[in-house]
Amino acid sequence: MSQHGVGPRAVTRSVAFLTAGVLAVPALAGCGSEDPAGKPLAAPDIQPAGRDRIADGGTLRWAVDSVPDTLNTFQSDADATTTRVAQAVLPSMFRMNASGRPERNPAYLESAEVVETEPKQVVLYKLNQQAVWSDGREIGAADFAAQWRALSGKDTAYWTARNAGYDRIQKIERGDSALEVKVTFSRPYADWRSLFSPLYPKDVMGTPDSFNDGARKKLKVTAGPFSVKEVDGEDDEITLARNPRWWGKPAKLSEIVLRTVPRDKRAAELAAGTLDVAEIDPSAARRITVAARPRSSSSPLMGPGADRSAADALRSWAVANGTDEDAADEETVARKKLRKAVTKYTRQQQALRGFEVRKSLEPAYTQLALNGAEGPLADERVRRAVARALDREELAEAVLKPLGLPAVPVGSHLALSGQAAYADNSGALGGQDTKEAQALLADAGWVRGGPVKEQEKKKGEKAAGAEGEKAGSSEDRQDDDGTYVVGEDNKAHGRQDPADHLAQDGKQYKQPAQGGAPGAYAPKGTAAPANREAAQLAKNGKALTLRFVLPSGPGSQTLRTVADRISRMLERVGIGTDISKVSDESYFKDHIASGQYDLALYSWPATAFPATDARPVYAKPVPAADGSLNVEQNYTRVGTDQVDQLFDEAVSTLDEGESRSLIRKADSRIWAAAGSIPLFQRPQLIAARKNLVNTGAFGFGTPVYEDMGFLKKGAKPAAGPSAKGSAAR
């Protein structure tokens, strides 16, 4: 997955976090008349069009990261493709709007409201009378009850990944008619709208066997605009076909084919005509953007040979026509290969002119995780110093500004701008302040320029880079020529601006250093006399060096670029970093989840239900019976009783305003503990055929699959911004 994001809320959330202790928390945003939630930073970009302009029929070929191991979103191996299929083929009582807030889905639900609070909370669902499963049976209380029993956690024979919310239900019964479902809770539950989305038929949820195995590779009974036609493991495809029993406006497309295509192969597949829409990385977005421009001298050079200067070309010609026959033959072969590559690239660029890049911000953010379990970061002062050393605006601009997206740092761990629970609570920790960072480190006993003893590898440190390679450290950068390249598999060219290159492929390059720092070539442990401020911090003979673990896959260039910038920011306050790049497969399992890191970068999704979904991410780790630490999804190992209590209170009140206030208080205390630092909302870059409408960068919103399609010949998309979302139904 690009940038190591984690799937939607249907999948168990894998992320890191923090908490605060007894630190003073500033007054919360929102005390005035202005809503602190604000608006989404970027609108959806889906090329909206009315249904009357869309052709009937056609197949949409859509790139995905994988064909999932299961079609059951409530199992631990579900992924983002599982969720995409569920959205198209299963009922969902609520879906997300363009602001990331839940709204009633009228296709299935006429109304849903809390009708009683005493002595128990009771929610009454009134179902759309036309809503039926694909086998003709009405959707009703039996389906709700089967899903509750499967996910309640009371029967361990069901292999469930989560039961939050369902464990608070006391009973489910039919209302006054078959179209009414009454859900009674044993304890108040603020996030009741999160339940039954998606809703599986009782055929899947009714028994442990059917739950565990019945929906892994097939879904016989569905109730959406599409149904699952085929899961092809050999060709790595899932085919969704128009559902003839769908009671709403019929799907415009005949089929949707979800094809597994690696991220670094998608531009070529688009050019070959085998895909219609795909999420892409910044380098592919740059290719498509350039391809769409009129040819002119102002278009940047890209592709094979683009980095060759006139001098390089002249040298190549001279060698190919020189007297050294072996060198001439070798150069001639190389020139032929280059011409062939250029021809292929040019042909692809011509084909890519039929596509455009639709962009928004993904409902997920990238954060810096700080492992507070052991080592220097177990000291809250050091964690806070790391946070105060970071210029989050610079990091956001480096990633988002070249893409033409709003470069605004994320101000909350628990929501994103526009969502109901959002407020910028970063003031509880404070912004970039070098002097404050240095003061915190000094208070923690770390001093500049002190002697450093040779240290043995700490247990687990070898594992941090076992499957990868050492990418470098702040110490290494003092010893070489300053040309450290994030990724190490590409070389910088002095004439290219680093920030501009980031827009193309997510990598960042540094110019050669001009001279060396005083003391740079002295033996290790020797202070730099002429520039004490440049020396690394030390304490008790140990240098302050943090293990920075990163994924090495082709979709992680941006993360590695951000890590390089963070390392240089930390170096300014005397903190060294030891960067290890590890395989994507082992990154989370062997490093983040197991705690074999000090610093790490990864993304996690926003949720409309933070009181439920964020609780395990920030829960205070507790000792297990075997003496190990039960961290749930709190991979930073930082937590407090106070934050746990705020979550418990927020999820148990039915006053929505009070719940939001409690969530914001929890976030302020999470900021103050500096266990994880939100950086920026992730870019969402989608390549789509120009005539494909109501599809693209959806942002927060849930896609409306029945409105997707291709424009009729001669038709044009709707006027106005894509922020309006899919055409009115």
TrEMBL record:
Residues 451-476, 488-508 have a biased composition (Basic and acidic residues). InterPro entries: SBP_5, SBP_5_dom. Residues 509-529 have a biased composition (Low complexity). The keyword Signal applies. Residues 451-529 are annotated as: Disordered. Residues 1-29 form the signal peptide. Keywords: Signal. SUPFAM superfamilies: Periplasmic binding protein-like II. Residues 115-293, 347-450 form the Solute-binding protein family domain. PANTHER family: MONOACYL PHOSPHATIDYLINOSITOL TETRAMANNOSIDE-BINDING PROTEIN LPQW-RELATED, PERIPLASMIC BINDING COMPONENT OF ABC TRANSPORTER. This is ABC transporter family substrate-binding protein. It comes from Streptomyces coeruleofuscus. The lineage of its organism: Bacteria, Bacillati, Actinomycetota, Actinomycetes, Kitasatosporales.
